[in-house]
């Protein structure tokens, strides 16, 4: 008789981030991707709303800089496995981010 492999564990698995993805948005250069992520604006934004668990997933789907993240659509978030409630929370934060950037670019002359 052949022995069967043990059953697969059903606990969440962290998706590794490609080294090139971790370097995006901070001048590139490879190296320690965890250090790169710590300085990445996408990772900082996700951490600010308690959604740091999606950093690796979004990076793996190509959303590793603010330019691409600002273009993310509901279907992209669904494909990445982000639950609807978390997707709404992220979209709200991205909208606020856009307003903040616009305010910095065009300060009130008063």
Written account of the structure:
The chain is mainly α and 110 residues long. The chain has 7 helices and no strands. It starts with 18 loop residues before the first helix and ends in a 5-residue tail after the last helix. Residues 5-32 have low confidence and may be disordered.
Features of the shown structure:
110 residues; mainly alpha
Estimate percent helicity. Answer: 40-55%
Overall geometry: globular
- Major sheet size, sense and barrel closure: none
Count up the helices. Answer: 7
Sheet/helix structural class: mainly alpha
Q: How much strand content do the residues show?
A: under 5%
The succession of helices and strands, N to C, reads HHHHHHH
* Intertermini distance: 83 Å
Beta strand count:
0
Short description:
This protein is an all-alpha fold. The chain has helices at residues 19-23, 33-38, 41-48, 55-60, 66-69, 74-79, 84-105.
């Amino acid at each position: 008789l052949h022995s069967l492999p043990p059953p697969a564990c059903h606990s969440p698995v962290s998706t590794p981030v490609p080294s090139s993805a971790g370097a995006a948005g901070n001048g590139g250069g490879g190296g320690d991707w965890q250090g790169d992520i710590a300085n990445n604006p996408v990772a900082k934004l996700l951490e600010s709303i308690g959604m740091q668990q999606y950093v690796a997933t979004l990076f793996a789907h190509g959303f590793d800089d603010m330019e691409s993240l600002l273009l993310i659509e509901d279907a992209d978030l669904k494909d990445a496995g982000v639950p609807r409630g978390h997707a709404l929370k992220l979209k709200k934060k991205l909208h606020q981010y856009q307003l903040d950037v616009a305010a910095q670019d065009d300060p009130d002359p008063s």
